[in-house]
Amino acid sequence: DPAVVADGDLNDWDLVPNPIVLKGRAHVTHSPDQWDGDRDLSAVIRLCWRPGELAIAAEVTDDSVRQPYAGADIWRGDHVNLWLDFQPGVEPERTMFGEGQVHLVVSPGDVATVKPEIHVYRPEGLNPGPGAVASRRTATGYVVEAVIPVERLGVPAFAMYKDANFEV
Q: Are 132 and 6 in contact (CB under 8 A)?
């Protein structure tokens, strides 16, 4: 406590431990042959939860921020991709989406005309609602943060001592 607020100011994340630092070629999944070092693209990701909600904050270093897309097309511009599995012990050999799995994207927007947003790709048809995401430009890229009500992701509420897998 206090709760994280999606406002683009990461001061409320100071006490959240274990940031995920994505630096180096090993973390480049799209066009690694065009990646030109950590100043080209790298990030620090923080995740936390409270009863009923999941929160994410990303400090992204990117020398060319571009996000002119909205809705289902936001994957085509700058974004943070989250793959969540709230039931990792169910069908461990599966290769396609199944029960308890969620794929969502958090977009910083372009600050001027395209608003920051969250788009849920799987399960289809779910929307975490307006006002749950905020972003701001920085001298080296952007910051984006979101607070997502878990019931809007179609998964059971999570709690301490329950397994969950995340990939960012």
A: yes
Token pair belonging to 115: 């608003």
Is residue 105 within 8 A of residue 80, CB to CB? The reply is yes
**Integer Cα distance of 33 and 16 in angstroms:** 34
Peptide bond into 2 cis (omega under 30): yes
Maximum Cα–Cα distance across the chain: 44
Token pair listed for 49: 């939860």
Cα distances (Å, whole numbers) of residue 105 to 6, 72, 84, 161: 15, 9, 11, 26
Q: How many other CB atoms sit within 10 Å of the CB of residue 40?
A: 13
Q: Is the pTM of this model over 0.85?
A: yes
pLDDT tens digit sequence for 106-147:
999 986 789 999 998 888 877 766 558 999 999 999 999 999
